[in-house]
Amino acid sequence: MRNKVYVTGSRPDLRVPFAEVPLSDGSAPVRLYDTSGPATPSPVRRAWIDERGPGTNVTQLHYARRGITTPEMEFAAIREGLPPALVREEIAAGRAILPANVNHPESEPMVIGSRFLVKVNANIGTSAVTSTVDEEVAKLTWATRWGADTVMDLSTGRRIRETREAILRHSAVPIGTVPLYEALEKVGGDPVKLSWEVFRDTVIEQAEQGVDYMTVHAGVRLAHVPLAAERITGIVSRGGSIMAAWCLAHHEESFLYTHFAELCEIFARYDVSFSLGDGLRPGSVADANDAAQFAELRTLGELTSIAWEHDVQVMIEGPGHVPMHKIKENVDLQQEWCHEAPFYTLGPLTTDIAPAYDHITSAIGAAMIAMYGTAMLCYVTPKEHLGLPDRDDVKAGVIAYKIAAHAADLAKGHPTAREWDDALSRARFEFRWEDQFNLSLDPETARAYHDETLPAAPAKTAHFCSMCGPKFCSMRISHELKEYAAQGMAAKSEEFVASGGKVYLPVVPR
Ligand SMILES: C[C@H]1O[C@@H](n2cnc3c(N)ncnc32)[C@H](O)[C@@H]1O
Ligand SMILES: Cc1ncc(COP(=O)(O)O)c(N)n1
Ligand code: SF4
Ligand SMILES: [Zn+2]
């Protein structure tokens, strides 16, 4: 059971949602960060955007650098349980972004940066092979219900624009896209026919609709392409492979790289954030941390500086497939070369051997990379490498990544992270089964698993479950140890000695 509650900020129209879990022992309910906006979200940001008025630069970075704390920043700060000034300072320093296109007023503001809660992105979208607009809107609602903090619409094939419009208008979380995909559809799917003009027009159309951040693979330069030639898995990024094909066919520098400043001007007018794409990310553990990947990363650092000159917000996309011992180097180099811009990584998958379980191979890497400072994790579902994820895959992916993100929040010591774990642990130790279920990341599944063996109502207060049974329940025995201690260890020790060792762990009357 979760109750939606709102915390009001410094103005009445600044109402921040939380999911509250009531507890049966009379202690204070636990407040959880909530992303599951209403099915048809209202334009919560409308008044704030209108008050600031039109301009050629309307980015949160622009305001932050001028010392202005926007309502969006305060909203995000309340969600984090942190001071609004910290959000403003982190954005001003480029260490955090607040993706919030002025044409996406339905978006409930959130902040992405290493000082804040680790965020999770869920990828959805149609492909030429399968799915419809309605199915993708359902995936959006489903993904955010389980806690996705942002959603990327990676649609390809037909009706890309309609799919995106439906997703945006139903989304209370920021929406990301890869405009190159739609640009490629416009030229009939032939990368060679792409041009700056087609790409630019696509970006403007998507910005008009309200896309909050866009992946731009501007780090795939002509000279980098040969560096990937000897890899086991070549170029696995769609955007990366498309741009590499264009560069080689024209034997010309990438139009994304040569027109980057112009792109910044467009982004500044709408406050679209860059997600600088990792077009040369490794697609196998063998290819991790190679020359191609790191040459691109250096270029992304250069591009970050250019975007910041235009007050445009930036995050950096990262790999991919990386074995555990090579993960830390990715964060260290990204932070150094990209001037501490937030890192946003796909997993990474820590081994290549488990298709159908890549939500697990990658959640391991995601937990590690987040602990080292990655700000947002892009989920991987069980269908990775096999097909388009369906609703069940979306849930499996989001849950796996919420676990990775929260585990990292704990390791990093985010001030609000521990409360949830402690409340659940107390409920577990006190055999408050309903509280334990309600506090679970996935309450329905937790309850259903308990019901499988002990469905009767009395089992929901019993001091054991079917794992150990009543006699071997270590937590029940621990309660007796506690009572034993409470009765006075000294007296009991004397009794023990006097009895010649016969009185040992007496059963305390219940
Ligand atoms: C970059 C990541 O995006 C995922 N990806 C690409 N297209 C889609 C889609 N339509 N739906 C869900 N995930 C997608 C890939 O599986 C890859 O992991
Ligand atoms: C973290 C991350 N990395 C990359 C992409 C884009 O996909 P692609 O590079 O395959 O076009 C993405 N959507 N998210
Ligand atoms: S094999 Fe499937 S997932 Fe991999 S690049 Fe090709 S279409 Fe995409
Ligand atoms: Zn892969």
UniProtKB/TrEMBL annotation:
Sections of the chain in a coiled coil: none
Binding residue positions for Zn(2+): H321, H385
NCBIfam families: PRK09284.1, PRK13352.1, thiC
Co-factor binding comment: Binds 1 [4Fe-4S] cluster per subunit. The cluster is coordinated with 3 cysteines and an exchangeable S-adenosyl-L-methionine.
Name of protein: Phosphomethylpyrimidine synthase
Function: Catalyzes the synthesis of the hydroxymethylpyrimidine phosphate (HMP-P) moiety of thiamine from aminoimidazole ribotide (AIR) in a radical S-adenosyl-L-methionine (SAM)-dependent reaction.
GO cellular component, one term: cytosol
Gene Ontology MF, one: phosphomethylpyrimidine synthase activity
Sequence ranges assigned to domain ThiC-associated in this UniProt record: 3-40
Similarity field: Belongs to the ThiC family.
Family annotation (InterPro entries): ThiC, ThiC-associated_dom, ThiC/Bza_core_dom, ThiC/BzaA/B
Gene3D superfamilies to which the protein is assigned, alphabetical: 6.10.250.620, Radical SAM ThiC family, central domain
Catalysed reaction, written as an equation: 5-amino-1-(5-phospho-beta-D-ribosyl)imidazole + S-adenosyl-L-methionine = 4-amino-2-methyl-5-(phosphooxymethyl)pyrimidine + CO + 5'-deoxyadenosine + formate + L-methionine + 3 H(+)
EC numbers on record: 4.1.99.17
Amino-acid positions noted as binding substrate in the UniProt annotation, renumbered to this chain: N123, M152, Y181, H217, S237, R238, G239, D278, G279, L280, R281, E317, Y344
UniProt cross-references to HAMAP family, sorted A to Z: ThiC
Class of the enzyme per the UniProt entry, highest EC level: lyase
GO biological process: thiamine biosynthetic process; thiamine diphosphate biosynthetic process
Biochemical pathway: Cofactor biosynthesis; thiamine diphosphate biosynthesis
